[in-house]
Amino acid sequence: MSRVAVRRLATFVIAVAALLALPAATASAHAALESSTPSANSVIESGPPQIVLNYDEDVEATLASIQVFDADRQSIAVGAPGVGEDATVVVASLPTLGDGLYAVIWRVTSADGHVVDGAFSFQVGTGTAGSGTDLIAGVSQGGGVDAALKWTYGIARFLALAGAIVLLGVGLWSVQGRPVLGSMRRIRGAMWVGAAALLVGSLAAFGLFGAQAKGGTIADAFSPSVWSDIAGTDTGRALLARIVLTVVLVAVLAKWASHERTWWQGVAASAALLTLVTFSKSGHPNSLSPRLLWISIDVLHLAAVTAWLGGLVALFLAGKAWLAEPEAVRPVERYSMTALVAVPVIVVTGVAQTLKLAGGLDDVTATTWGRLLLAKVMLVIVMVAIGGVSRWLLQHDGVGSIRRTVLVEAVIGLLVVGLAAGIVAQPPRPLVAALPFNEQITASGVIAAVTISPGSVGANEIHILITPPGGSIRPVANLTARVSLPAAGVPNSPVTLQSEGANHYSGTITFPESGDWTLELIVNVTDTDTALLKATVTIP
Predict the structure, then answer these.
(1) Minimal CA–CA distance to 163: which of 10, 306, 260?
(2) pTM of the predicted model, to two decimals?
């Protein structure tokens, strides 16, 4: 390997390390609320000093929004959200809350740049407080991301990705041939169009991402205050880096136009590689662990796609006349061999990411992400088939015979890029089904108010308020609880409870699988008087 090649390789490694050497994230795309304090649907004796939201992956606490409403739908002043014990926890202080029902409406931005929101209710005191579901419905203002903003953000991502593939892919093949393809005006024109799309798309994505994260509208994408809020986030830094890198690539392209082709070639290669890294750092791979590994796999995937599709665009733009020339034979054969390597790389890296993100293929059709992925795979299969035809024509009828197949491949490739841009915005896994349990159980004059949340497979919080016979406020002697799943042959398992006050117990209950679970409460009203209360808890 020559010294020049070694220097360029070292430049690549250092540049990639600069962007990738960050702490690893710990989750798997799109943050989900794992637990909260107070817990959803819980009944607590006194108001909590703060709201604590615990997610299953890192979130941008500075962009979080937490709103609290009372039973009269009046907003409660909440402190500014901040980072809790680690980057997966968001906390916000609360004033003293009186007895009653409260609703919490939250919104956070996950490590992969996606905005997620939700709501839950809790009750202070044991008096009748009304329906938490009705309160949430009354204070929610539509929820989710503004539809126009979501679509506009999707268009911006498509422009940026398509522009990168055209600029970098065509740029890669523009140095092929004698004279080089880049000497053609239409090839350079395509690269300028790609650069413009990449720059405009990245600028728009930066502002629109901020508007989404702040729960705003398209107009907020032009707000300097929104820009400053997101500039320090992972996604914001990746988008800003892409904008700077695009400016560098534009400067390199201008050098190409002036036919100065020496030192800037290494700069162009480094900027191109780092540009691909910014796409991975602002998407799903940035939330996977180990982050360095999955970002590297995604960059390899994008690089193979760029070489494949960029070559198609370059060959089509070269024109029929150029394809008929003898000097076209070697570049076309080189592209054919490149595609032969790139397609397996695309497949292997794509399958690896799919299995990691979706956790398997069982539920791949249960999400929009999975359905878009299947559509993308089908189009890629068609492209591969057409590529096989092109390779056969190249070997039997010469270079000039493949222009039409190349055109069809390029058009389908554009559709694939559109689907890829759409997939980024979708959660790879179905939302976890939950059915909070909130009922009163009665037997032998004993009343037990039981809440179990979130009501899903895995760990749940349980709160129990006991009213002895006759409405007495005298504390009961003891309370034990157990659960079983008769349909699956799961025997009784004890539930660990702790006293939170007079006749108020709480604990953690784990449901290892879905089904209709039997909950049994053994209440020792006195040392000699015992009541058995039963209920069916459905875990979806």
Answers:
(1) 306
(2) 0.68
Provide the 3-class DSSP secondary structure of residue 481.
strand
Query: For the residues 249-276, what does the mean pLDDT come to?
Result: 76
Q: Which residues contact 460 (CB under 8 A, 6 or more apart)?
A: 452, 453, 454, 508, 509, 510, 511
Q: Which positions ≥6 away from 469 have C-beta within 8 Å?
A: 444, 445, 446, 525
The pLDDT value recorded for residue 173 is: 84
Cα-flanking dihedrals φ and ψ of residue 31, to 5°? -65, 145
**pLDDT tens digits for range 404-437:** 766 677 677 667 666 665 665 565 555 556 677 8
Residue 28: predicted pLDDT: 42
Note whether 364 and 375 are within 8 A (CB): no
Residue 202 has pLDDT above 90, yes or no: yes
Report CA dihedral (347, 350, 351, 353) to the nearest 10 degrees: 160
- Short-list 67, 88, 71, CA closest to 79: 67
Q: What is the dihedral of CA 7, 9, 13, 18, to 10 degrees?
A: 50
Please state, in angstroms and rounded to a whole number, the distance separating the CA atoms of residues 155 and 161: 10
Break the chain down into helix, strand, coil percent, rounded to 5.
50, 25, 25
Bridge-based pairing state of the strands 43-44 and 115-124: parallel
Cα separation of 17 and 299, whole Å?
13
| Peptide bond connecting 469 to the previous residue in cis, omega within 30 degrees of 0 | no
